[in-house]
Amino acid sequence: MSKYALIPGLMLAVGTFSASADTILGAYIGIEGWDVSPTGKFGSSKDNQQTFDFGDETPASFYVAIEHLLPMIPNVRVTYQDLDYTGKTTLTNTFIFGGTTYAVNSNLLSETNIGGFDTDLYYELFDNDLISLDLGMSVKYVDGDITVKNVDSPAQQSKETFDGFLPMLYARAEFGIPGTGLSIFGEGNYITISDNTASDYTLALAYEFVDTPAVDITGYLGYRRFNLDLEDIDKVVVNINMDGLYGGVVFHF
């Protein structure tokens, strides 16, 4: 089943909560888009990485969150995202990837896919119309593959796959502007373990344009920056930075 087809069903299911139930249990569904400009390099070893000229992309992501008032049990949010982008380069040095050696002056095309899930477990330290503060941890599951092709010799190509889990610190703060429906929020995940580093930060302006007993709908627009620096995960070295305009809409039941 298509992941896009799941959204209406999820909205219908969580919409069965009554307004009074939100004081005990609340559900959120978010849909986000990102105008991203990737930069970076990758390779099969730290000493033999290649920088590619990547094209701009507009990936989408989806999340579902459940918040409650049960003590000691964290709230949970699960986010799915799939990043696909291509790059090109002309080699000035020999490049070895996936067991294939590409000679100097080769014109290469790369196709990269980095997908997976983020699971955030967090506690609400403050939650009112003026200030909201969440702290917790995340587990990022990264599942990716990189294909390199010689444009001038299509038969020469190689592919590497990688996957793994990264535990991360999680924090979110939101500040409301009384009487306007506007708020400003920032959100971030960060971890450094051994030679692996990952970070994901957002800063946005939000506006609640629907406020009813059944559902609240908020739109937001801002900036997002993502960095993934993996040293020798499944024999792949990846150093990718992405940033750009970011926005979305969230339904709160």
Give a quick rundown of the structure:
With 253 residues, the protein is mainly β. Helix content is 4%, strand content 71%.
Describe it:
It contains 1 helix and 14 strands; from the N terminus they run H-E-E-E-E-E-E-E-E-E-E-E-E-E-E. The chain has one helix spanning 6-14; strands spanning 25-43, 49-51, 53-54, 60-68, 75-90, 95-97, 100-102, 107-127, 131-150, 157-177, 182-193, 196-211, 216-233, 236-252. The longest helix is centred in the first third of the chain and has 9 residues, at 6-14. The strands form 2 sheets. Strands 1-4-5-8-9-10-11-12-13-14 form a 10-stranded antiparallel beta barrel. Strands 6-7 form a two-stranded antiparallel ribbon. By secondary structure, the chain is mainly beta. The protein starts with 5 loop residues before the first helix and ends with a strand. The radius of gyration is 21 Å and the shape is elongated. It has one domain (6-252): Lipocalin, CATH 2.40.128. A hairpin with a 2-residue loop joins strand 13 (216-233) and strand 14 (236-252).
